[in-house]
């Protein structure tokens, strides 16, 4: 496992510099000729350290004479890997310490081997639950390894629910599929997957299936046949609220990577016009390939800025705008978001309102508009919708037609909190032009 540990540590060093964790790890694994077992170990170690970073650093800092950030990056990586192994991977403490010392040498930092040995032997005995902190927010930040800005936000907006949400970020989200209802029923999909050794079961949301894969969800014959795509349950619920119908003109304004577009096309029975846009040109092929795989002919994909009006799109029956957001609802899937500073929030919320206001111009009288995000931040959710309604006459909120069990519904707007209404945080508001 030495090469696996070294690969994970080098990826952690790179991660400190810049980049998304999934891309950093993928690049690191590509450089090394590791066995599947070693790749799995390196991935578990890399993501584990990333998820538990603040907790690990709290313990390590209490055992160092100087700030952790003053150490060389490879030494920090060796310490974090060793402590994570000892505390979370069931590696015996002596073995975890020994491997970390060896890792330090493999990273050409032999002079720090003694420090790594001494610090780890002290750090493994520290317990957050017995420590004293200056505030409740600081304690939760260290305990659940989520940055103070995010913790303070959750405590302010959801004081009685914040800790459960934070704890849920460590739970591995189940793989949720969207059955291609144009080709099979959910139960048929489950039977097809069972033939390939995949356990699956239909969920309460129409067309949703939960599955347990030993490998990639894209590696099955059922996937190649276009019988499903991977899409979170909350995301499915938000898209289903549009209630797109056959023969209609439907717009998906922020569409990549395409899961909601596929769902909407299925709602439409692949009849009508579904125009799928995204501002990133390089993401458009993802949507096109997925639509072809699923046999959808009503989908047209094009580059488009959702905040800029295009008169050619006016008169649509339904418009979905799943806007750019802080992403706090998908921390369990994207550990980088744990440490967001939340800076630039005012600019982001201004963009969200601009997109919603622009999207409204495309909706014909009697048509429907759905605004959604993958965050629980009320400032990006209900406040944006209320600001829109105050400045835009002729729209009203409708009750959400699909509500996840455990979701909060206020003034017709649905907020899905992680740990309460599934693993993802999401928001959806359904608006009608009257």
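Sequence proposed for the structure above (434 residues):
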């Amino acid at each position: 496992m030495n090469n696996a540990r070294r690969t994970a540590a080098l990826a952690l060093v790179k991660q400190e510099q810049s980049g998304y964790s999934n891309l950093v790890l993928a690049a690191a694994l590509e450089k090394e000729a590791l066995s599947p077992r070693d790749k799995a170990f390196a991935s578990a170690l890399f993501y584990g350290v990333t998820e538990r970073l603040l907790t690990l650093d709290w313990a390590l800092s209490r055992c160092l004479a100087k700030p952790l950030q003053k150490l060389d990056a490879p030494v920090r990586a060796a310490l974090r890997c060793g402590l994570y192994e000892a505390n979370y991977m069931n590696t015996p403490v002596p073995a975890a310490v020994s491997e970390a010392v060896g890792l330090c040498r493999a990273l050409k930092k032999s002079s720090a081997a003694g420090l790594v040995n001494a610090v780890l032997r002290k750090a493994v005995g520290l317990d957050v639950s017995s420590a004293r902190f200056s505030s409740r927010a600081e304690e939760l930040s260290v305990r659940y390894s989520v940055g103070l800005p995010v913790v303070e936000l959750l405590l302010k907006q959801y004081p009685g629910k914040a800790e459960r949400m934070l704890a849920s970020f460590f739970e591995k989200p189940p793989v949720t599929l969207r059955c291609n209802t144009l080709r099979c029923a959910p139960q048929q999909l489950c039977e097809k997957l069972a033939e390939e050794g995949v356990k699956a079961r239909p969920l309460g949301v129409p067309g949703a299936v939960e599955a347990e894969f030993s490998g990639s969800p894209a590696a099955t014959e059922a996937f190649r046949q276009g019988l499903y795509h991977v899409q979170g349950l909350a995301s499915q619920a938000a898209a289903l609220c549009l209630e797109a119908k056959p023969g209609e003109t439907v717009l998906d304004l922020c569409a990549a990577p395409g899961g909601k577009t596929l769902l909407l096309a299925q709602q439409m029975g692949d009849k009508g016009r579904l125009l799928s846009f995204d501002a990133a040109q390089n993401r458009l092929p993802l949507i096109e390939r997925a639509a072809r795989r699923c046999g959808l002919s009503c989908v047209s994909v094009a580059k488009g800025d959702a905040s800029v009006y295009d008169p050619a799109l006016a008169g649509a029956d339904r418009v979905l705008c799943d806007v750019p957001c802080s992403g706090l609802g998908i921390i369990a899937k994207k550990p980088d978001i744990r440490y967001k500073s939340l800076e630039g929030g005012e600019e982001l919320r201004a963009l969200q309102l601009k997109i919603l206001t622009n999207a409204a111009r495309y909706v014909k009288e009697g048509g429907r508009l759905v605004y959604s995000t993958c965050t629980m931040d009320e400032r990006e959710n209900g406040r944006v919708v209320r600001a829109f309604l105050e400045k835009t006459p002729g729209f009203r909120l409708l009750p959400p037609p699909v509500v996840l069990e455990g979701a909060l519904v206020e003034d017709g707007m649905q907020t899905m909190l992680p740990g309460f209404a599934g693993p993802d945080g999401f928001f959806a508001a359904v608006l009608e032009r009257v």
